[in-house]
Each structure stands twice: as C-alpha cells, then as structure tokens.
Amino acid sequence: MSRLGNNADWADDDEYDDPSALPATQITENKDGTKTVVSYRFNDENKKVKVTRRIKSTVVREHVNPQVAERRSWDKFGLEKGHAPGPSFDTTSVGENMIFRPSTNWKAQAAEAEKNPEQGSMKDQLKDKKVKCRICSGEHFTARCPFKDTMAPVEEATGAGDMGADEGAAGGLGAGSSSYVPPHLRGKAGGAAGEKMGGRFEKDDLATLRVTNVSELAEEQELRDLFERFGRVTRVFLARDRETQRAKGFAFISYADRGDAARACEKMDGFGYRHLILRVEFAKRST
Amino acid sequence: MRPILLSGHERSLTQIRFNKDGDLLFSTSKDKIVCAWWSANGERLGTYAGHQGAVWTVDVSPNTVLLATGSADNTVRLWNVKTGECVKTWDFPTAVKRVAFSPDGSKLLAVTEKRMGFLGTIAVFDITYGDGDLSNLNTQAEEPSLRITCTESKATVAGWSYLGRYIIAGHEDGSVSQYDPKSGDQLENVQAHEFDHQINDLQFSPDRTYFITASKDKSAKLIAASNLAILKTYVADTPLNSASITPKKDYVILGGGQAAMDVTTTSARQGKFEARFYHKVFEDEIGRVRGHFGPLNTIDVHPAGTAYASGGEDGYVRIHHFDKPYFDFMYEVEREQMRK
User: Does B273 touch chain A (CB under 8 A)?
Assistant: First the structure.
C-alpha cells in the first residue's frame, strides 16, 4: 500500500520520472560463456540509443614488469578524464587488415598483386564457360553455325518431327483436330501440308556425315574430292579456327542420297588422310 | 596486420615515442596537445595540455615518470606522466625542436632553433625525480648545466649515445657531430649526408652503440656512435623524415614522402607515403606498409620489437603490431647460420 502512496499514478513508473535519465545497463550471462550488455546512451542528435553488445571475454595472462602492471591501474586524465575504460570510438579505430610479408623481391610481387586481382576474377568468370552451338553442339555461336539452314536446333527438331507425324490429320479442314490450319495450306497435296519452313532440310541430316580427326591442314576441296567418289555431295563444312584459319579437326559432309552417305561412312571410316585416321559417322541431331 | 588508428590530433604529427617498457605511446602534434596512449589497444590514457604553440618533440624518462616536451612557444615542459600535470617549464629565446633523456634519465637535452639573432644551441638540464615516492617532481634545476652553441650549422636533432658518453647531433647542413656532455666540446664532425640536406631524425639502436639518421637527401645512414663511421646506407626515392632501428629483427624502418608543402600537388600514389622496411645488414628494401594519406613525419619502434607506430602529416598515428611473416622472414644466409 505504501508503494501506491509513493507513486500517485501507475503510469508514472520511476523510469519516466526524469526524461533525460537513461535506463540502467543490463548485463546477462549467456550459456556459451558470453555476456550480453545492453546499455543506453545519447547520440549526437540527443536521441536515446540502445546499444547491445555481445562480449566474449578471454583471459590472457601476461607476465610484465611490476611498473607496467602498476601503470595499468592509472586513471585517465586531461581530455580523457572520467571516461570509461576501454578505447573510445572517437579517438581509436581499427584499420583495414593488411598483409605485410617481407621479401627480397617485394617490388615484383607488389606489381603483380596490383595487376592480378582484375585479371584473376575475369579468368575465374570465364573458366568453365564454353561457347556451344544449339544446333550442332559445336564450339561456335549458334548464329554462326554452318548448319543453321540445314539443321534445326535440338528442341525444335523433335517438334518438327511430331508435326510430320500427324500431317495427315492436319491435311483436312481441321475437322476433329484442334489445330488451326492457315487457308493457304488447306487442301494442299499430302507432304506439303503442315510442313515447316526448314522442314525441307530435316531429311538432310539423315545423309550428313560427321568426320572427326581431320588434319589441321585439311582443305574443304580435298574433302569434297575424297567424299564425292560415293555420290553427289551437297555440302562440305570444315570447321576452322576463326583466328588462325586452321582446321579444328572435324567436318560435316552432306550427301544428296542417304545410301551414298551410308556407303561413304562405311568406306571412309578409318581412312588415312594427311597422316591421320579419319573417323566417320552419321551426324547426330543432338549430341 | 591490423593497424590501430589513433585520431587524437587535429594537425600533423611531429613526434611519437614509446616508453621503455613499450606499454605507452606518446604523441605530439602541431595542435598544442600531447597525448598518451596504451600501445596494446590504442586507448588514450590522457592528454597533457599547457603548450601555447605547436609541440615539436617529446621524450619520456626511462622510468616513465617524467615526460619532456619541446614546443614552438619557446618552452620545454616537464610533465608528470601519471597525472598529466606540468611540473616544470623552462623558457628559451627560440623554439625547441628536440628533447631527449639520457639513458639513465638523469639528464635532459633540448635542441633550440636558430632564429632572431640567436644561434642554435643544445642545452642540458639535470633532472631529479623528487623524493623516493616521486612526490616532489617540481624541484628541478632552473638553469641548464651545460649549453652547447652550434656556430657552424644549427642542430636539428640530437640524442645520447651509450652510457650517456656522447651527445650526438644531426645538423641542418647534413653533418653529424659528437659532443662531450661534460665539457660541451665538439669531438668530431662528419658530413654524413649530402651538403645542405637537413637531418630530420636520429634514433639509436637499443644498446645505443650506433644510430640511424634520416635526411632530406633521400637516404638514411647507420653510423657508429663512438667514431661516427658510416656503417650502412639505405637509399630511398623520397625525402626521409624519420628512421628507426627494429630490435629482435635486423630491419630498419624509414618514413618520408613528398615534402609537406608539395603534398597538395601530388597524388597519394606518387607521394610515396609508405613506411619502408630495409634489411639492416644487406641494405635491401624488403617491403612497404601503406596507410597514411600524407608523408610520414615520425616513426618509432616498440622496444620489444613487436610493433611499430608511425605518425603522419595527415594527423593520424597508426600502431602496427607485427605478425608472423615479419618474424619469419630470413635471408638464405641467415637461415644457414641458424642451422649451424
């Protein structure tokens, strides 16, 4: 009851008696041996700030001169008079970590360290980056693929195949089929219906051979001569390095007839050309 | 190595000194304040206020009881290190550029500027430490026991050699001279640095048998105290303001940079505001520590050789506690010697 008498209003908690008073510092011991210190202070704008610090204290024992130990207990004086122990934020700060490694050839190392950070990161970025063509999976950009006219990209190629399969159904007026058929394609004779723009070439890769282990010095004309013995060759592509113009080691040969291609594949596989043994196989659509 | 930055000064640093035990660091700057810091964590112990002008120099007695400072207000002041009180003031006709306690702490020398018709002098005072309990520190001699006048070229820096046997002074004309501290006679004078290139710093090895000088002529020299023989020369590419010998490892640390008046016209990179480490014996530069935004005015090494501090024209003191690679570094020949 006496307590009620002292405090006229329950809202007048003693904490709020003086607005400039700061709440007492709370120190809680944590289970892991650390301490949490919650203290309050006024910042530069005279606002009350709550500061929560988690402190882990480790005891470092050091043997020092008795004079040094005695000095440890000295009080602060001058501008620091009355300040709390410990470094003050406005006079003491910790700089950036720096590596100091004495060395006889430090000049060269310093110059290298200055250059390398940029280069290193760029290298890291491009380390496992490889240019891959979406059409033939070769090491070039899709836009530069020699087969961009003859081969469809991997995903589209399968789509086109589906189209071919149900072309019979699409041939009609669309009865029973949900797919819309544009007027100029309706009623057209068999194969043309539903055919894609590039569809004409789809069969081509069935007659395309992939030749690997080709010499660096190979020429497109020589390859054409070699492979023309088995039938009409519609296209020869020899992959070249863009800078050195040397062959990259693989080539594609397209035949007009698949039978010719099969024969060529059989005969030319293992053929010695410019000191290298050619490996010939049918080009796969997706590798 | 994480440097501790001390930003207690508002103007450029003039000198920093560790005490003999290395637990305290004293710094003076042109802003009239002298600061004392704990070297381990960079906490400021206190300040010594009273000077009316830029404070040029500081030294602490070997027992860390008295602190002496010399200032542009033409005074040398003696302070009680513990309390920050000024216990004695000596007036001079000109500014005081350097003070130094003798190795036993019984004497204090003060180097005064040549100005207004007064010649540069080196004044020596006898210092007493009061009663046994260090209570009467303010009973000090009024007059210097010795006054050396530098007639040829004014002294810029000075210090005491081993056992206080000689006073070694560096001069404005680049020469180094040796004086007898009893009679005040000049015993020897050697043109150690290029003529008319002022000697900016002179610091002794731990045993005070040799010392290092830093000069405006872009070099530092290691000189024997007994006969002023030049033992080693360390060549830098910038005027040097300070040089220090490291105990424990055989290095020297040089600090300098573009002259303060030219700083605004040079970039930080060109200014070469780095502490340079040279091998004391082989004279090779073995590394640099960057950090300051202005020339390094003063460098001091912890007496145990575990840290060094530098004060710059930028007003910062940086304390660097060395880490493992610093202590591990060895020349091949040194390693071989270790194995034997």
Answer: no
